[in-house]
Automatic annotation (TrEMBL):
Pathway(s) annotated for this protein in UniProt: Amino-acid biosynthesis; L-histidine biosynthesis; L-histidine from 5-phospho-alpha-D-ribose 1-diphosphate: step 5/9
Keyword Acyltransferase: no
Pfam families on file: GATase
Domain (Glutamine amidotransferase): residue spans on this chain: 4-200
GO molecular function terms listed in the Swiss-Prot or TrEMBL record: glutaminase activity; imidazoleglycerol-phosphate synthase activity; lyase activity
Role this protein plays: IGPS catalyzes the conversion of PRFAR and glutamine to IGP, AICAR and glutamate. The HisH subunit catalyzes the hydrolysis of glutamine to glutamate and ammonia as part of the synthesis of IGP and AICAR. The resulting ammonia molecule is channeled to the active site of HisF.
Coiled-coil stretches noted in the UniProt entry, renumbered to this chain: none
Source taxonomy: Bacteria, Pseudomonadati, Bacteroidota, Chitinophagia, Chitinophagales
Organism: Flavihumibacter petaseus NBRC 106054
UniProt-recorded name of the protein: Imidazole glycerol phosphate synthase subunit HisH
Gene from which the chain derives: hisH
Length: 203
């Protein structure tokens, strides 16, 4: 079962409905025991980085989620700000991130007269890198839905599993052992998102 962590933030129902559509057992939960016993964990997030971190820390769920993330075997997936939270910090705010991933979350750096507007919203092709188990059975350049003004800046580029071009090249997903993070929204990405979440459910 996939435990979708409910700390008061994220497209929880949309994510749950997508899992149900593809036949993956999942639930929305803020219960520590349920999270402790789940086969997989999904950390959602949408909105402001500081607000998400504050709510997650206040929820009392951080310790149990981290214990599963650090056990080295439980697949954990962060979506959008849920993935950004896995980094050390974000230029969007002053709260410390979880620090699971060696890297930071930074704002898009485009010239004011650039045709690439921030936030980056809509469908974009991504390039699949090696080691991306979530991208199995997807084309080399699948399309996913994005809605963000900030992106990952990793200390170790080798953990990037996909990259995207929006004015310049940036990391759109990563994997460190059992911890996965995606900047885009698989729950809004139709058949590509269904395949990604199906792959996660099969881990």
């Amino acid at each position: 079962m996939v435990a979708i962590v409910n700390y008061g933030v994220g497209n929880l129902t949309s994510i749950l409905n997508m899992f149900r559509r593809i036949g993956v057992d999942a639930c929305i939960t803020g219960d520590k025991e349920t999270i402790q016993n789940a086969g997989k964990i999904l950390l959602p997030g949408i909105g402001h980085f500081d607000s998400c971190m504050e709510r997650f820390n206040a929820s009392g769920l951080r310790q149990v989620v981290e214990s599963r993330a650090f056990d080295g075997s439980t697949p954990v997936l962060g979506i959008c700000v849920g993935a950004q939270m896995m980094t050390r910090k974000s230029e969007e705010g002053s709260e410390k991130g979880l620090g699971w991933i060696a890297g930071d979350t930074v704002r898009f750096r485009h010239a004011q007269d650039s045709s690439f507007k921030v936030p980056h919203m809509g469908w974009s092709d991504i390039r699949v890198c090696e080691g991306s188990v979530l991208m199995d059975d997807l084309p080399e350049e699948p399309r996913f839905y994005f809605a963000h003004s900030f992106h990952f800046q990793l200390d170790e580029p080798a953990i990037a599993t996909t990259r995207c071009e929006y004015g310049y090249d940036f990391v759109s997903s990563f994997r460190l052992n059992n911890i996965h993070g995606v900047q885009f929204h698989p729950e809004k990405s139709h058949r590509y998102g269904m395949r990604l979440l199906s792959n996660f459910g099969a881990l």
